[in-house]
TrEMBL record, chain A:
Residues 469-490 are annotated as: Disordered. Residues 251-466 form the Histidine kinase domain. It holds the Pfam family HATPase_c. The keyword Phosphoprotein applies. It comes from the Bacteria. The keyword Membrane applies. This is histidine kinase. Its EC number is 2.7.13.3. Keywords: Kinase, Membrane, Phosphoprotein, Transferase, Transmembrane, Transmembrane helix. It is an enzyme of class 2 (transferase). It catalyses: ATP + protein L-histidine = ADP + protein N-phospho-L-histidine. The chain crosses the membrane at residues 164-189.
TrEMBL record, chain B:
Residues 124-220 bind DNA. Transmembrane segments: none annotated. Keywords: DNA-binding, Phosphoprotein, Transcription, Transcription regulation. Residues 124-220 form the OmpR/PhoB-type domain. It comes from Sphingomonas quercus. This is Response regulator. The modification 4-aspartylphosphate is found at D51. The keyword Nuclease does not apply. Residues 2-116 form the Response regulatory domain. Pfam families: Response_reg, Trans_reg_C.
Length: 490, 221
């Protein structure tokens, strides 16, 4: 399934898709029956008033001295005849002859008026729809019923129906919107624990040091619990296979050492014997070089595996003197630098700088940086190693070709080497090791451009102990450094 | 000179044997810990090369038992394991030196030779570098066959540097060797001696190099 499709089927969508159609049907049914009911109620109520008027009229029909008399009480129709009420019409007929009222209304007589009962009918009067109530009344001494009709226009009742329908519609709309809003809110609220989980997982996504500890189950909703548990199980599996892989690298590298030692010993012996044709000796030289490169690679692999082991074993405890560690590494590499015609110098702004960490690890870090400076720096160039106690940094600076800005992060990747160095000795693991070891101690490693404008300045920044703690730094003895400075000539 | 190699890898053992036999040493070889313990207690070896990964027991156990039996033969440990923890362990258990596999043959040779010398108690009195010859016993010093007139301090400087030729000797250590710890020394006293010594070495095939901030190094020019 494409990701876009997957997004379409979001939880909210799903919920709304399942909720909305039935909800709409219910609302529609409710609306229809409501409308019908409203109409009925309004009609009944209005009809009752209309029939009241009709009866008030018809009850006054009487025969007096041979005449049919009718007393039209003003209240009977008057209560209907106010300006904002509907117009009222009436008619009284006997044997089809209009006795009083509106002749046009008499036309609308029902074919078969009910005796002693009221009939209602709809019609049009003067172009307006009207409601007519008719009654056939038997008056003593008359052989045929007198038909009495009262009608009113329906404006009022239509308006009433309309108002009620609008109220109904508004009510239904409010209900619909509320339901949608509640669904959204409920989904968001229900998903909040998941968002928290996501943040938790994202926070661990530091590519270098992935945290495989199980996710906390405390705030996870019941429904998601199985999923998170399964995810934790997966994490555990991944963690274990990760460890296995690391151990494998380390074990395999160790296992490789013995056969490599055999090859190296015998190749060196053969070379020393000096037997064989020149081609054979060349081949031996090649083999010897390859064996040394292989050895370097294996040693670096072991270093890296060691550096990337999870933190917290005894190797991480302890403290070291940054000045001594760095000076020791610099002394070792000074010899190689001299062989290459480079000048290596060491500067420290203090005699001792005690920091938390493992001295062997630090030696390895500085050694790898020095290895690069010697290997990639210019023959005849300068290498400066610096300990800055105020900043808590150790710097290794060369004036070689440098590393292009864009590649300064990539060179920390395993096995990555600048294209121009592809054929030189080296494994591409050095800086990865430096960074991994640094991370164990909370130190950061960065590559910068030296003040001179060319070359590389590798800076290792160690976390400084809180300034209040027992003074870890020994101030320099100024005369001594001065004297050192004085011995420039060789 | 008798040397014992304790190494379970036959091919590697053959190589090592070849090296030291070529040097004229009497070399024995055993491939497990039991055998090693037995033979070490019987024969007077001048040095032992001990592999840590033995089939029957850990090399460190062998070492511990040797020391417990009060045998002080110099021991060089060989290991395929990782340096850091093992090195400290090994040296604590009474090993004299330590080498990681794979190693350069020259390195092994040099270290074993040094061990044997140390065991004999008389370090080689003659120091040589290029045409420099320094007799520690008599104090005589020759450069290209010509006798060098050196003050005792200059000789001490040269001797200390020559004993660790091609490596950087920290200034503090040099001062300690030359002046002793107690002498009150002018801050630039060492530089004064160094300057004179350099002048006397001029024209020869060796030179003293200042590694700024770190110390001095003697090397072939
Ligand atoms: N001081 C430096 N000057 C120039 N290029 C460097 C320097 N240090 C590292 N590099 C480049 O970064 C790459 C990676 O370095 P590193 O991780 O130490 O591996 P390796 O040195 O084994 O190749 C090197 O191959 C080189 O191209
Ligand atoms: Mg490197």
């Amino acid at each position: 399934m494409s990701p876009r499709k997957a997004r379409k089927l979001s939880l909210k969508r799903r919920l709304l898709l399942t909720l909305l159609p039935p909800l709409c049907c219910i609302l529609l049914a409710l609306g229809l029956s409501g409308a019908w009911l409203v109409k009925r109620i309004v009609e009944d109520a209005s009809d009752r008033v209309l029939s009241g008027s009709l009866q008030a009229v018809s009850e006054t029909l009487e025969m007096q001295e041979g005449y049919l008399t009718m007393d039209l009480p003003p209240s009977a129709l008057g209560m209907l005849e106010n300006p904002d009420r509907d117009a009222i019409y009436y008619s009284v007929t006997y044997r089809g002859k209009l006795i009083t009222g509106y002749p046009e209304l008499a036309v609308h007589q029902p074919v078969q008026p009910r005796i002693e009962g009221i009939r209602f009918s709809n019609s049009v009067f003067h172009g307006e729809p009207i409601r007519i109530a008719s009654e056939a009344r038997l008056v003593p001494q008359l052989d045929a019923p007198v038909i009495v009709q009262v009608a009113e226009t329906v404006k009022n009742r239509t308006a009433l129906v309309q108002r009620m329908l609008i109220a109904l519609a508004i009510g239904e709309t409010i209900l619909l919107v509320t339901v949608i809003g509640l669904v959204m809110l409920a989904v968001d609220w229900g998903l909040r624990p998941l968002a928290l989980l996501r943040r938790e997982v994202e926070a661990r996504n530091d590519e270098a040091e992935i945290d495989f500890a199980p996710l906390p189950l405390s705030s996870v909703p019941q429904e998601v619990l199985p999923f998170v548990s399964a995810f934790n199980t997966l994490l555990d599996h991944v963690d274990r296979s990760f460890q296995t892989l690391r151990r494998f690298t380390s074990d395999a590298s160790h296992q490789l050492r013995v056969p490599l030692a055999v090859v190296r010993a015998h190749v060196e012996l053969l070379r020393r014997d000096g037997h064989g044709s020149p081609e054979m000796r060349d081949a031996l030289t090649d083999i010897h070089q390859a064996v040394r490169a292989l050895q370097h690679l294996i040693v670096q692999l072991i270093s890296l595996a060691k550096a990337e082991r999870p933190n917290g074993d005894e190797a991480d405890a302890g403290s070291f003197d940054a000045v001594e560690c760095t000076a020791a590494a610099a002394r070792t590499y000074a010899v190689r630098a001299l062989e290459k015609g480079m000048e290596l110098s060491f500067e420290a702004d203090c005699e001792m700088l005690m920091l938390a960490g493992n001295a062997i690890f630090v030696g390895e870090m500085i050694g790898n940086l020095l290895d690069n400076a010697v290997l990639y720096g210019n023959a005849g160039g300068q290498i400066v190693v610096r300990v800055d106690s105020r900043a808590g940094t150790v710097e290794v600076e060369d004036d070689g070709p440098g590393i292009p800005e864009g590649a300064r992060e990539r060179v920390f990747e395993r096995f990555y080497r600048l294209p121009r160095n592809g054929d030189r000795e080296g494994s591409g693991l050095g800086l990865s090791i430096v960074r991994a070891l640094g991370r164990r101690m909370g130190a950061t490693v960065s590559l910068e451009t030296p003040a001179g404008g060319h070359g590389v300045k590798a800076v290792v920044r160690f976390p400084l102990p809180p300034s209040g703690s027992a003074a870890a730094r020994l101030a320099p003895a100024p005369q001594k450094l001065g004297a050192d400075e004085a011995v420039q000539a060789r | 000179m008798r040397l014992l190699i304790v190494e379970d890898d036959a091919a590697l053992a053959r190589g090592i044997l070849k090296v030291f036999r070529a040097e004229g040493l009497a070399v024995d070889h055993v491939s497990d810990g039991e055998e090693a313990l037995e033979i070490i207690q019987m024969e007077p070896y001048n040095a032992v090369v001990l592999d840590l990964g033995l089939p029957d027991m850990d090399g460190l156990t062998v070492l511990k038992q040797i020391r417990r039996a009060n045998i002080s033969v110099p021991v060089l440990i060989l290991t395929a394991r990782d340096a850091t923890a093992d090195r400290i362990n090994g040296l604590n258990q009474g090993a004299d030196d330590y080498l990681c596999k794979p190693f350069a043959i020259e390195e092994l040779e040099a270290r074993v030779r040094a061990l044997i010398r140390r065991g004999l108690g008389n370090p080689d009195p003659l120091l040589k570098l290029g045409t420099l010859e320094l007799d520690r016993a008599t104090g005589a010093c020759y450069l290209a066959g010509r006798l060098l007139e050196l003050t005792p301090r200059e000789r001490a400087v040269l001797e200390t540097l020559a004993a660790r030729a091609h490596s950087v000797v920290p200034k503090a250590r040099l001062s300690a060797e030359v002046f002793g710890y107690d002498d009150a020394v002018a801050p630039n006293a060492l530089e004064v001696h160094m300057g004179r010594l350099r002048r006397k070495l001029e024209g020869g095939d060796i030179e003293i190099i200042t590694v700024r901030g770190l110390g001095y190094l003697l090397r072939l020019a």
